[in-house]
Amino acid sequence: MIAIANWKMNKTVREARDFVDFFKKETKGFLSKVDVVICPPFTAISSLKDLTSNFSLGAQDLHWENSGAWTGEVSGEMLADVGCEYVLIGHSERRWKINENDAMINKKLSASLKSDLIPVLCVGEKKEDREKGRAEEVIQKQLGEAFREIGDNDLNELIVAYEPAWAIGTGEVKSKEAATPEIISEAFECIEEILRRGNFLEKSKIIYGGSVDSENLSQFLKIEKNSGFLIGGASLIASEFVNMIKKLAIL
């Protein structure tokens, strides 16, 4: 089981280190049973590198070029250099708030593989897509475009996170309602079929992201094929994230 914390645009370097110090102390003996990945803002990544003896670091985004005139961007090579092993790609906030399109996500996926980063590819529909019965169509398109010109030999490991945009919180626990297990199961089946067609399934994990916290975690653990969680707002509160990891560890 894997738990990926997405801190979004939160925490200074000191806040990040204080969080990790507390987290490691409180989860001693549990982290060997759960794969934990923390994705802090870029400014805090290198400051946590010396603390990652029993968890991994990830980034929240990357650019598709390794270097060049791309003001404000960060490459996969740079992320690997500061200790990242994972990178989020295509998070719904970037798709819908920053207008990141499928072509960009495809290039970012390719770049992550070239930098030996494990991609966490995020897919999911908006509320209006679900209301119009287009959820599966949207997921199929997002995955199809992301994998364009990428073969199974290009991949060593892949994580696909189903995160419906309508269930993504604003950074506060309980700011949105999570999807139901039935909705998630249907999406997982769709994702699994697409991964199978591309011969990616054996190298892939499918996880859920969207308003997950320590209170509703148990209902999602019953979902077949669920390999873990992408956790937003709940991962910002050290005690809450600790509780989630402990629950996952005793499965």
User: What count of structural domains?
Assistant: 1
Return the average pLDDT rounded to an integer.
94
Q: So what's the overall shape?
A: globular
Main β sheet profile: 8 strands, parallel, barrel
Amount of helix = 25-40%
What does this structure look like?
With 251 residues, the chain is of the alpha/beta class. The protein has a single domain, classed as Aldolase class I (TIM Barrel, Alpha-Beta Barrel), CATH 3.20.20. 39% of the residues lie in helices and 17% in strands. The protein contains ten helices and eight strands. It has an eight-stranded parallel β-barrel with strand order 1-2-3-4-5-6-7-8, surrounded by four helices. β3, α3 and β4 form a beta-alpha-beta unit. The chain is globular. It starts with a strand and ends with a helix.
Question: What topology does this entry show?
Answer:
Elements: E1 2-6, H1 13-26, E2 35-39, H2 42-48, E3 56-59, H3 76-81, E4 84-89, H4 92-97, H5 102-114, E5 118-123, H6 127-131, H7 135-146, E6 158-162, H8 181-197, E7 204-209, H9 217-221, E8 226-231, H10 238-249
Parallel strand pairs: 1-2, 1-8, 2-3, 3-4, 4-5, 5-6, 6-7, 7-8
Helix pairs in contact: 1-2, 1-10, 7-8
Descriptive keywords:
alpha/beta, TIM Barrel, 251 residues, 8-stranded parallel barrel, 8 strands
Quick structural gist:
The chain is 39% helix and 17% strand.
